[in-house]
Structures are given as C-alpha cells and as structure tokens.
Amino acid sequence: MDVLINVFVGLHIIGIASLLGGFLTQMKAMSAGTARFVPAMLHGALTMLVTGVALVGLNQAEDMSVNTLKIGVKLAILIVILGLVYVKRDDEKIEKSLFGAVGGLTVVNIFIALLWH
What we know:
Helices cover 79% and strands 0% of the residues. It has 5 helices and no strands. The chain is elongated.
C-alpha cells in the first residue's frame, strides 16, 4: 500500500507542477494584460483533486491520521481555483487580478501542504 500512496503523491506533485507551471508561463502575458488559463492549469487542478481525494482515502484505509481541517481548507482552495480556471478557460484574456488570484491561491495551497502539520 505504501507504494500506491507514493505513486499518488507523485501524481499529486505533477498536478501542482502543471497548475503552477501553467501560471508561470503566463506571467509575461499577465503583465501585458493578455494572460489566459492554459489547458495545463485545468488538467493540473483536476489531477490534484482526484489524487488528493485518493490520498485521503488511502491514508484512512491504512489507519493513518488525516488532518481533516487541513484537507478541508486545501480542498476549498482547490475548488475555488478549479472553478475559476474552468469557467474562464475559453476566455481570450483574463483580468490581472483574477489571474493573480489563481497563482496566489496555488502558492498558498503549496505552503499549507508543507507547513501545516
């Protein structure tokens, strides 16, 4: 079961890399006011959602403790990110504030995962 959990952790990291990487590739366009949500951002957020839910289930199946408050906060942030990216995915350009909010929330989610024990 440890191998399966580690595979899902790896996939979860790939998801966050896709979401954050998509944001970072649009930073120059954001300063020009022409940024858009690229497909990698949507796919990364969806990957994070699926693998995160799987990780919670796998950890609970192994009788490992799961900080449900932390998971709930991370899930709420991810749902906001996913909702914004999904709704605005076809727009030719995204407002700087909205695009920046998605990047900021992504970074907040990373630091919650790393620093909240």
